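As a warm-up, study this chain.
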Amino acid sequence: MTRILGVSGSLRRASFNTALLRTAQGLMPADSTLIEGSIAGIPLYDADEEQASGLPDAVTTLKAQIEDADGLLLFSPEYNNSIPGVFKNAIDWTSRPAGDIPRVFGGKPVAVLGASPGSFGTILAQDAWLPVLRTLGTRPWWSGRLMVGRAGEVFDGQGQMTDERTRQRLQTLLAGFVAFAAGQTD
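Now compare it with the structure written out below.
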């Protein structure tokens, strides 16, 4: 069983990226599962607080989920043409202490996808993640990309994906990424 962790970079209840993650859970290939991680409850990073109190529980949970997963899918919104601060902050916390980075992220198969109300999807946010993923020593999957633009036309008011073409593209991406994470492709 290939275990993939999906993390939405939005805290909104009606997040398009959380809706995309939950749609993906129902489209996973046989013999794989997509577990939903969360950035909720992770405070702003403060080295003084880390030194005084250690890692917050929400960080410890997410960090363990990343470490235990065979692969990581980042469902990233795009804010002001880049990575949402709250999402980057969560990943920064999970990289603490720095000596844990190789164990948690080293060689971890990872892909970034996302949904946005704008026309261009999340192309700039996805590109902005690349130096972060490189620094963490992950193994990005270069063979697939999904940027869902005009997400308000792809999801209904309850967060259900209504666009069949996008559903098929997502299913194809998931099949490729799971094969990559399972070591079946390069």
